[in-house]
Structures are given as structure tokens and as C-alpha cells.
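So, could you explain the following?
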Amino acid sequence: MASNEEGSIGTSLHGVTAKEQVFSFSADTSSQVVPSDDPTAKFALPVDSEHRAKVFNPLSFAKPHMRAFHLGWVSFFTCFISTFAAAPLVPIIRDNLDLTKTDIGNAGVASVSGAIFSRLAMGAVCDILGARYGTAFSLMLTAPMVFTMSFVTGPIGYLAVRFMIGFCLATFVSCQYWTSVMFNGKIIGLVNGCAGGWGDMGGGVTQLLMPMVFHVIKLAGATPFMAWRIAFFVPGFLQIVMGILVLTFGQDLPDGNLSTLQKSGQVSKDKFSKVFWFAVKNYRTWILFVLYGFSMGIELTINNVISGYFFDRFNLKLQTAGIVAASFGMANFFARPFGGYASDVAARLFGMRGRLWILWIFQTVGALFCIWLGRADSLPIAVLAMILFSIGTQAACGALFGVAPFVSRRSLGLISGLTGAGGNFGSGLTQLLFFSTSRFSTAEGLSLMGVMAVLCTLPVAFIHFPQWGSMFLRPSRDGERSKEEYYYSSEWTEDEKRQGLHEGSIKFAENSRSERSRKVALADFPTPETGTLTNV
């Protein structure tokens, strides 16, 4: 049977060979000859009407889609290493700087609190200036703070520098925004899951990297108190290198850089006030803020406390505790992509309602294993509980960003920023409540954090899209409100529509029909008047 999209801009397979497909994930299995004057012929991957890639090939570095993907996640990965570089070295740093448990806890809160503001700002930067500049600026401007850690002399300086380094976590927002504007909605869960998960993996790598660098420097003749300071030059240089690469090889959008497209009139320049208003007035934004606070938020908290927890509770060596703690972050390599992929599969079967159910299941299960981790009495049980907890929580992060790109087309960057800021807010809150004082032991704090996460995951049931429904409610019965075009065009005034500024939202709405359940999609599929199949 001929494809129902035949002849449309979005079905080009130009430049994709059978060999590439072995390692790729596709949103469309159609194939056809591409006319030589087809505007999609310049892309190495098949694209939709917005020129967003419909195939995800992680082994490719093709410009612009896959190159943006790799630059985005590696940048975030580098910043994750810098932000949590101090955590595995805390047993050494606390003796050098005479840090108390309160000092260490407050520094942990500070390391994620700065990113609350920077992620909010990054969302606006992506909407107004583009992901390329946002990513590069974040890397380059925070690198000096990483170097400054080498010169800290006391608790106040340690807290202040960790606060400033944490600003670089804003690269998460630019990373997720970048992939969201580069890839089709049918595979966005998997793509965002891979980008976010592989970036988050830096939290695990730093648990291995920093003790190893520290050990090598110490073998070279440095004292322990000097070795940890020199070690911080490694993540600082990594950030500078990545900043240069992003500026040199990155591209904002499939068709070019945002500033160039705006000057040529191909993309309209939006007003920040409008972008901000449509982001903050959408109640779904704030539910995602809370949900991410208790998925990514507790993951950030674990990155700060888990190494010390195993070091103190089970009397492990520093490097051994680092290896155990690293397994939590390293699970991001497959767990977060798995959550995104599960979200995409659920959407193909049950639409947006499937995505919401997957999100609730993963996040709740992860929180239950967090409770178990705090109650574990032996090292093997604690390690098992931690691994299961990491898989559930990280899969939930991937599933959440299978939902977030559909909340708004016009305010995508700012909503990504607010959602990302929710993760840092949740981490700061849980560290402040459970790990910054002697009121609770670390084990008790872990269990209480898990209970809080279970309760704070319940609001996912209130996310309702009039065109797709929610976990328990069906789509709107109103014929007009139940259309994707109505939902996304409502972000534009009538005057803006007359100027054609909403055309991008209309294209996005057309490509978002994949979020209808399979049953609804089949019901909407046109049937020939004769009642028989044609073009067989």
C-alpha cells in the first residue's frame, strides 16, 4: 500500500543507506525517490515537514542532526563531571579544609542550587539566541570557577565555588532543547533519553575519574592535600575544549543557525515576554517541575552523598566507595534511554496517555527502591537496591522528557529550563531536609527521600491534554479543542496568525498527531468510499 505521506516533504530517505539503518531507530519506514529539487535532499537523515530527523543513528556524526546530538550530550557530560568532581574526594577535602558535616551538606545544596537560576536563564537563551550559544557560553563562563576550586582555603570558599560551578548544569536545558528541535516527536523520547542519560553518566564517571586522577598525581610526588587541588584542572580544561568545539561545529536548527535564519526572514524573532508568559501560565509546566524535582532531583542528591554513604556505613576504601557509587551514575548509559524508548513505544500503542503511565510507573518504582536502599543492612543488599533505584529513577527522567517537548511549541526552551530547574530545586530541598544536619542519618534520609518521591509523583495524573487526554480521562469531546492545531495555535494572537508567525506551530501540530492512540489514529484514517483497499 502506498504511504499516506507520499509526496510530502517529510519522507525523504536521501543519504541513508541500508548499512546505516542497522544501527538506527526510525519513526518512519516509508521509502521513496527524492526529487533533485527537494529541499530535504541536503540532509543525511530522513526528515519531517519541519526538517526534524525521523531516524536516530547514534553511530553517525552527520550534520546537523547527529552532530548536534553528540555536541549536546558530551557538553552536559563534561559539566556533570565538573559539578560533582568534589563529591568522591570529600574524605580528603574535609580534612584539608576542616569541613563539618553541615559544611559538606550545605556545599552539596549549593552545587545544585546555582543551576536553578542558570537553567531558567538557559531556557530563555535557547528560545531567543539558540542552543549553540547557550551551550558554549555555559561551558566557557563556568570553566574559571572549576580552576578556582584549586585555591580554596576554607569552608566558605568551598561552598561559594561549588555554587558557582553548579551554574554549568544549565547545559542540560540546551542539550534537551537542541535534540527536541532536531528530531521528530515519534522518536524524541529515545533521543532525549540518550542525550540526557549519557550526559548524566558524567556523575558516575567523575566518581571513578577524580579518585584516579588524584591517585596518579599523588604517585607523581604531590601530597594528598595538593593532589586534590591539581586534579580540578582536568574537568576545567575539558569544559574549555568542549566550548570551542560547540562554537566551531554546532548548528542551532536543521536549516542553519538561528541568527542567520532570523536575518534572512526564514525564522521570526520572538518576544521574550510572550515566550515567558505562555510557559509560566501552562499548569503542565509546574507539574513537570515537581516531577523532575523527585526524579532528576534525587539523582543529583545521590551523586553528592552516595560515595560518602558507602565509605562511612560499610567502611570501604575511598576508591572502592567511588567504584560502587559510580555504578549509580553509569546506569544512565542505558536506563534513561530505556525510559525514553519505553515512552515512545507506549505512545505508539496508547498515545500520550501511555507516556504518562510509563512516567508514573518508573518514577514510583524507583522511589520504592530508594526507600529500600536506606533500610539495607548489608553491602550486597545496599548495592542491589541502589542499582534498581538508579534504573527506575533514571528511566523516569527519560520518560519525562518524552512528555515535555509536547507541552508547548512556542515556549519549548523556557519549559525545558523550568523543568530542568525543578530537578535542581528538588535536589536542594532534599539535601537541605535530610542530609545537611545531624537530625537524620544518611540511611534515614534516603528512606524519607524515597517516601517523599512517591507522594510527589502522584500529580502526573493531573496532566491532561485536550487533544490526547490524561492517565484517567479521555480527550476533549469538543471537535475543535480536540485538535492538535487548536492547542498549539492558541499560543499565538490573531494578529500574529495573520502575519504567519504560527506556521511553525501548525507544522509541529501535524507531526504531533502521532501522540494519538493507535485506536484513535485508525479511526481517523480515511476509508475509500467503495469500502475496499486501493493501491495494493
Remarks:
- The first strand starts at residue 25 and ends at 26.
- DSSP finds 25 helices and two strands in the chain.
- The first helix runs from residue 18 to 21.
- The radius of gyration is 24 Å.
